[in-house]
Every structure is written in C-alpha cells, then in structure tokens.
Amino acid sequence: MEQLPFPLAQEPDEADHEAGRKLFAGNNSDFLKGVVAMSGLPPADRMEVCFAGRSNVGKSSLINALTGRKGLARASNTPGRTQEINYFSLAESHYLVDLPGYGFANAPLPVVEKWQRLLKQYLSGRASLRRAFVLIDMRHGIKKVDEEILSLLDNSAVTFQVVMTKADKIKAQEQDKVLSQVRDKLAKHPAAYPEIVVTSSEKGGGIATLRAIIAKLE
User: Fold this and answer.
1) How far are the Cα atoms of 3, 65, 152, 167 from residue 187, in angstroms, in the given order?
2) Quick check: 100 and 82 in contact, CB under 8 A?
3) Beta strands in 27-125 (DSSP E)
4) Sheet containing 94-98, strands listed edge to edge, beginning at the edge strand earlier in sequence
5) How far apart are alpha carbons 59 and 97 in whole angstroms?
6) Which of the two residues, 170 and 145, has the higher pLDDT score?
C-alpha cells in the first residue's frame, strides 16, 4: 500500500500514552499570564508549544480537553477580539501558549497590525518554542487566512504540526476529501511536520495522541 504524505498520527504506544497522561494529569495546568508585548513574556526557562488557529476553530476547547480543565482557556465571544498571547503553565516543565485567533473580521486595522508584529516577533525570537500546532477545522480544510500563518512559520523556521479539529462534525468519507486538500497544501510548506493529528475535543478523539506528542518533544 502506498504511504500517504502527511499520514495521520497513530495512537501512542503504552509508554508514550502514559507519559502524556502523567504530564497532563490532575491540576498540573494553570493560567499564568496574558502578554501584549515581547517584554511581558515569561523567562524562556522551559519548553513551550504554541497553538494557532483562525477564530472559532476550537482552540480553547482543545486546550481545555488536553488539560482536563473545562474552563482553563476561555473563548472570546467576538472573533478576533482577544489580542493577547496567553500563557499556561504545565507541570513545572512546559508552557502551553495560546495565540490569538486570526481572521480579524471585527478588529480595527491598527489592532491587527500590532498583533501581527507581536506574532512575528514571538515566532522568530522565542528559543524555547519547540513546536507550533496549527488548528484546522475538519469541516473547512486550509483556507487562505491559514496560508498566511503557515508561511510565517516557514519564514520563522518554526516546525509546525497540523491538528484537525471538530472531526466529530463531519462524516468519515467527507473527512478524506478534506484531508486530501490539507495534504496538498502542506506539501508546499517546508516547516510542516509530516504527520497530521485528528481530534474531537467534544468526543475526546486524538487527545491522548496529542498529549503523547507534546510529552515526547525535547
């Protein structure tokens, strides 16, 4: 059988599953701070991963599902309104970083430009950032607004991995069509990690897999 480019991440083995479970167990996670300028970033004294995605892609729900804390990350009622980089501590070894949702239909242009500058500075200047997880809605695939962040990650030489969200909202045969589109788009991006994670925050699908991936990063 021909191996597809950008295969789906497999269920972790027992050891990796346990490492992921332990990292995210109990009340290991907490909100640390919201950052609006590079000077406000916490010390780069531990590994961090960031989560990026357009507004309403399910970023807050995914972070809450990963940490097992329902209200840890809160979604803004207005897409594009939250203009902070939100830091969450994970055990004493990791930071989870929630980047503002992009696709700013309701944000004034100066606000957008300020946030884009901060994002570029963060991605190019954060030595402790190990991987960016770019969330893509399984119902829609990669859109033009997503291409901008993927190119920015390429230019910043930050490895990124696509995480498909809301997999429970679309039938299996339709998923294949969307995944084919995503694979075609990713082939053009040198910083793309060659594996896709499919998740459902509501049903719990793929959460253990993503936990194990984060736990294995060095």
Assistant:
1) 14, 29, 15, 22
2) yes
3) 29-35, 47-53, 85-90, 94-98
4) 29-35, 85-90, 94-98, 47-53, 129-137, 160-165, 197-198
5) 11
6) 170
Lowest mean pLDDT among 81-85, 126-130, 145-149: 81-85
CA–CA separation, 53 and 192 (whole Å): 15
The token duo for 48 is 């961090």
Give the long-range contacts of residues 212-215, CB within 8 A, separation 24 or more: 212/12, 212/16, 212/17, 212/19, 212/20, 213/9, 213/12, 213/20, 213/161, 214/20, 214/23, 214/49, 214/66, 214/94, 215/16, 215/19, 215/20, 215/22, 215/23
Structural domain boundaries of the chain?
Answer: 14-216
Q: What is the rounded distance in angstroms from the CA atom of residue 153 to the CA atom of residue 124?
A: 8
Average pLDDT score over residue span 19-35: 91
Give the domain 14-216 fold: Rossmann fold (3.40.50)
Q: Which helix (H) or strand (E) holds 20?
A: helix 14-23
- pLDDT tens-digit map of 71-88: 888 765 555 445 789 999
